[in-house]
Amino acid sequence: MKLIDLSMPSSTTKKAKNKYLSYFKRILGSRLQSTNFEDTEHVKNLITRKLGASKSPKYGSKNSDILKFEQLYNKLTQKRRNRATSKSDLTSALYVLYKISNVEAEKNDSSELLQTLLKSSDVKEENKEQDMEIDGPHYKNQNDNKSGQFQFLKSFRYRSQDISEEALCKDLLYVFQGIDGQNISFSILEDSFVLAPNVNVSESTRKLVTEMCELGWLFKKVNDFMSRNIDSTYCDQVTQSLCFAFQTELTEFYRLIAILENQHQNYDETDALNCLNLRKLYLYIQEPMERMKWLAIIVDSIEGLKGGTIISSINSYVLHGSPSTKFLLSKLLKEVSAPIMTMIKTWMIEGELNDPFQEFFVSMDPNVPNDLIWTQKYDLKPSMIPSFLTNDFARKILLTGKAVNFIKKCCHEEDWVLDANEQIPFNADTFSSDENSYSTLQNWVDHAYKVTNKELIGLMFNKYQFLQHCRALRKYLLLGQGDFIQNLMDSMVNELSKPAGQLYKYNLLGILESAVRSSNANMTDSEFLKRLDVKLLEASPGDNGWDIFSLDYKLDAPINTILTPELIIGYLKIFNLLWKLKRVEHSLNKTWVQQISYKNELYSLKEIRSDLHRCNLLRNEMLHYINNLHSYLQVEVIESEWKKFQEDLDHAEDLYDIMRIQRKFVEVIHKRAMLTHEHIELYQLMVKIFEQIHQFSRTQDILYSSALEEYHKRQSVMDDGEEYSQVISPEASNTLKQLGKIYRVNFDKFNEALSTLEIDDKSLSFRLDFNEYYKDSRERENVDHIEDDDDEEEEEEDEDEEENINTDTFKGPHGKGGFQGFGSH
């Protein structure tokens, strides 16, 4: 209706205006369309040229008509932005106006044009109902949709308002501080400051004002962030430091605004040099806008972050190519890093962790007791490590603080103070991300790390005698004190042969003390001997004392931080294997002593001489296996690893290094001694061989006992002048033969598995078959099998020959040779 009022003379009646309105609705509901429908600028240019060529005196000059059209176009454009109307609607409205102007191009007056158009409109109005009936719902929907275009045009009901450049500058100075001006206000819907749509300015001016309004939006974003955090009791220290850094930047910004306001108030248009206009204002705010833009970027990037992650986020922008931007970001990074640097200094010097907001990269579990300070109480939070610090560097900081706490709380050296700050000064407040500051921090941390851990290692080695404890473990749990172990074994034979239920710890402790006093172990410091103890394992049905007995070594704080209970279990596992091996060796030596003691009596019985010879060969073969296995474990495994262990300790830098070296020492022994899970089959074969040796010793005892009994009976008969012809029972002899075969089968399996096993060296396999006797025996056996296949008629003779060979060389059922004993070749 406003368009009609502007286009028609003031004398036009209301009835005529309603007719024009009806006609315009019909036009808007029509299908008039431009070939360049989407080109708004093109339609605008067509209308402008049309107005320029018009001769109508209604609106005065041509320039006046063009100016009014420009004002109308600006209103339509602003309304479209505010109401999110599509661009096609604006183009349609302009095209309607253009087509209307062309209907009666030869008529100059707009009223005459509208009168002409209404003549045809009256006819169409009479047939309106008929058209709707014909077109049906389609026409209605189309009319409704196009009527929205008219409503769009109708909505521009504000009259144009001219505004001076001075007033715009004044409003912009308010906007820069996040305050609404008279003509520029913040739109929540668009999330920006916008110029009022009824303000009559050129498109270029509007665009310039819109660009400068961005500074107000950036300021508002930064200021809102500061308002939320700067006075909050729940804000972490790094965020508060960032807010104060922002406050410093905004102070400089406020100073610039004050200067601009002074220039705006004190100078007018008469002083063109000092007068503030939009173009000058635009130039003045370029640098502040760039700085404010980076502040807003940081606000967005740290959303939901805290502590070290905020520092990492800001540090990711520091390598920007612009010197001014890099200077700004480095300045902010220096401010936000100050709380973390202070925490680092306090943690490394005093061992205190003042981190109420959990923003430091070292965390503490308050529920863990002080005995576990080194292993469980403190830990790293990798996500909180600032990106300019490496993980190794953060680990040094963690270990230094741990060492300080360990010295004071576990080693009871409360008066010890780190003097690193006196030798290498470091000010946490002046730290920045440049190379010099980082180098200073690195040197200070390295120095504090070395001084603190050197003090801690000195306490562990001197005050708490760590190395002496390791030597005690080497002597007693790894059977390095030979005379003590031999005395202990001899003293405990009778006690450990009892069933497990009949064993008592106090009896075993008495035997242990006797073994210590009767050996060179008595020379050891009582501080270590009192830690030596007896441990009885959980018994299973049928177990005897040998199965559940074990030595133990008791440790307390702080030495048990390195020699942990888990590590002592590893030592006991090695002791278990060595103790079994020592028991087998003791059993075989006992049978040899028995044979030597009754040699004359036993060999006087001719019918058992072959059995005695078989016992001698099998025992020597078993001794060869046991002695070489024992020598391999004690010399090539334990002793060589002990030497490496001592050398590595000389290069340890901190307590973690000592723990790692100690753990490595035990783990390597486990691997080379076949005690790991991957060597389980080999270990089981070893245990089987041990049991067969024990069975051999029991069988020989039975054989010797029966033989001695027979000998004494025969002697008594001969003294009486009677003959005695009783034959010794062959059961022991048959058992002995069977044991020899089974032993050689298991021995060959063990040796074969050992030769293919990936251990550090092949020395044990070489020891067991140093003269390739077993290899030659296998080759001879293969030849025997070939001969058996070629000549079946001689099968029985070959079996007899094999029996004779078995009597001398004890070949196994698989044709593998057995060791004949020392000097048997």
Automatic annotation (TrEMBL):
Stretches assigned to the Gamma tubulin complex component protein N-terminal domain: 170-463
UniProt xrefs under InterPro entries: GCP, GCP_C, GCP_C_sf, GCP_N
A Pfam family hit: GCP_C_terminal
Sequence ranges of Gly residues compositional bias: 815-825
Source organism superkingdom: Eukaryota
Biological processes per GO annotation: cytoplasmic microtubule organization; meiotic cell cycle; microtubule nucleation; mitotic cell cycle; spindle assembly
Principal location class: cytoplasm
Subcellular location: Cytoplasm, Cytoskeleton
GO cellular component, one term: microtubule
Family: Belongs to the TUBGCP family.
Protein name: Spindle pole body component
Organism expressing this protein natively: Euplotes crassus
